[in-house]
Amino acid sequence: MKQLIQLKINGQVRDVAIDTNDTLLEVLRENLGMTGTKEACDLGECGACTVLLDGRPVHSCLTLAIRAQGREIETIEGLAQNDNLHPLQQSFVDRGAIQCGYCTPGMILTSKALLDGNPSPTEHEIRRAISGNICRCTGYVKIVEAIKAVAEKEA
Ligand code: FES
Ligand code: FES
Questions:
Q1: How far is ligand 1, taken at its centre, from the CA of residue 44, in Å?
Q2: Where are the CATH 3.10.20.30 domain residues in the chain?
Q3: Which of 3, 59, 101, 104 has a C-alpha 20 to 30 A away from that of 41?
Q4: Are 66 and 60 in contact (CB under 8 A)?
Q5: Nearest C-alpha to atom 2 of ligand 2 is from which residue?
Q6: Residue 28 CA, ligand 1 centroid: distance in Å
Q7: What's the predicted TM-score (pTM) here?
């Protein structure tokens, strides 16, 4: 039997009917059509499904939607304001840090959590923060440069 819950996503409260074992990833993508959050391994190993829960990166493929009630959920869809990309999104575009783009939403949300807590991280701290986000295309160099550029601007 479905259960009706409320989730606060990118500042908006959404009513959604779920099964109690639905993951947050399933609810975002399938119930709410928010396909910016990517599904890849479904095992908590690649970081593609990363969203922020109360400001901290979590694997939405391992998070039950029901456990996200009453918490602030942030997805990639919430970052751009009006027609303006978030500085991290813009920096990834400007520096060619995106190829297939599959890792990008998770990578950007993980970076956002890092910079929100530590606006001027070292390269080592950046690399450590994104170590759970796998990119099979870029080799990470441009991703790290893109994050560093935003950190330097904010510092
Ligand atoms: S899809 Fe969730 S960690 Fe890979
Ligand atoms: S850009 Fe393709 S996986 Fe990162």
A1: 4
A2: 3-78
A3: 3
A4: no
A5: 100
A6: 14
A7: 0.96
Is residue 29 lining ligand 1, measured as CB closer than 6 Å?
Answer: no
- Mean pLDDT in residue range 16-21: 97
The token duo for 31 is 């119930």
- Cα–ligand 2 centroid distance for 27 (angstroms): 23
Is the CATH number of domain 87-154 3.40.50.720? Answer: no
Residue among 24, 29, 45, 63 to mutate when testing ligand 1 (max atoms within 8 A of CB): 45
- Taken as a whole, the chain contains a residue count of 155
pLDDT, tens digit, for every residue of 65-75?
Answer: 999 999 999 99
Average pLDDT over residues 28-51: 98
CATH number for the segment(s) 3-78:
3.10.20.30
Distance in Å, CA 51 to ligand 2 centroid: 17
Tens of pLDDT, residue by residue over 55-112, are 999 999 999 999 999 999 999 999 999 999 999 999 999 999 999 999 999 999 999 9
All CATH 1.10.150.120 domain ranges of the chain, comma separated, are 87-154
Alpha-carbon dihedral angle through residues 20, 25, 31, 37, given to the nearest 10 degrees: 170
